[in-house]
Design goal:
InterPro entries: IolE/XylAMocC-like, Xyl_isomerase-like_sf, Xyl_isomerase-like_TIM-brl. By secondary structure, the chain is of the alpha/beta class. It is globular, with a radius of gyration of 17 Å. The two termini are 28 Å apart. The protein contains nine helices and ten strands. The protein has helices spanning 43-52, 80-93, 108-120, 135-144, 163-170, 183-188, 193-199, 232-241, 260-273; strands at 29-34, 57-60, 65-67, 70-73, 96-103, 125-128, 148-152, 177-182, 204-209, 246-250. 49% of the residues are buried. The strands form two sheets. It has an eight-stranded parallel beta barrel, surrounded by five helices. The longest helix is centred in the N-terminal third of the chain and has 14 residues, at 80-93. Helix content is 34%, strand content 19%. Strand 3 and strand 4 form a beta hairpin.
């Protein structure tokens, strides 16, 4: 996913939608999708697809066009009218906007706008990859806005590709900061997802979930969960052991124009494995 920016002002936050009859609910897991999976479409169209896949949570990403008659994009510059439209779209589909990312900002002032926007939209988790000189700023804002912040890992050579780097970045910072674990990017970097999850135990607040056709290859592509090299049941078992609570964002970055059947199959395989 590309990094962007996002956030500002106030209006009524969307209500949280409760899951029903899904096995992950008993574990405190929220199964949804990163809207970037449907980046070729508008946010409104992405919600249609997420709903069709049987998912009830969404992670919005910066820069996606809203659609439904709006040319605005999902950034902190979104107008009051645009925000109200997004909240209506979410309410109509009974989908909860749980997370926002992967987002970046260049200054403390811009980071504040990101957090203010996310708070206004009812977001619970901001996923980001801050520059080292912005970590203290992000930590302070996490407490100011009572917002969870997950440091996300893109593949090597990105800053946070290795969980050891993430752990170092979290030292001495807000208890609201943790890791957004992208299991697919770990695989691309040649890192074992189970080992990485164990290193981050107690720090994981969100997941970008993938299964890939190859391990240790940056060009590996997504396949329906449970059909690739991830080890779906083993990852689920480790997260159960850790008593993880939070959202799994399906981030399917393949077959961009028609990935809905594969996302739907992934969700079904995930639930069947539970």
């Amino acid at each position: 996913m590309l990094l962007g920016t996002a956030c500002s002002t106030a209006s009524k936050a969307p209500q949280t939608v409760n899951q029903t009859n899904y096995p992950e609910e008993k574990l405190g897991w929220k199964l949804g999708a990163q809207a970037y999976t449907f980046r070729l479409f508008t946010f409104a169209e992405a919600l249609d697809k997420i709903d069709a896949a049987g998912l009830r949570f969404v992670e919005a990403f910066p820069g996606q066009k809203i659609g439904a008659g709006s040319e605005e994009k999902m950034t902190y510059e979104l107008s009051k009218e645009g925000r109200e439209l997004v909240k209506k779209l979410l309410k109509d589909k009974k989908i909860t906007l749980h997370a926002y990312g992967v987002v970046g900002a260049k200054s403390a002032e811009e980071w504040d706008k990101v957090f203010a926007f996310a708070k206004d939209m009812g977001v619970k988790v901001i996923n980001c990859e801050p520059e080292e000189n912005m970590l203290d700023v992000v930590s302070t804002l996490a407490d100011k806005y009572d917002m969870l912040v997950g440091i996300h890992n893109h593949p090597t050579p990105s800053r946070y590709w290795n969980p050891d780097v993430v752990l170092e970045a979290l030292k001495g910072r807000s208890k609201r900061m943790g890791a957004t674990a992208d299991v697919g990017h770990w695989m691309r970097s040649g890192l074992d997802p189970i080992t990485c999850l164990k290193k981050l135990e107690g720090k994981i607040i969100h997941l970008h979930f993938k299964d890939l056709n190859e391990f240790g290859n940056k060009k590996a592509h997504d396949v329906p969960w449970g059909t690739g090299k991830l080890g779906l049941k083993e990852v689920q078992a480790e997260l159960k052991r850790q008593k993880f609570k939070g959202m799994f964002s399906a981030e399917y970055e393949y077959n961009w124009e028609n990935s809905l059947p594969e996302v739907t199959q992934s969700a079904q395989n995930f639930r069947n494995a539970l």
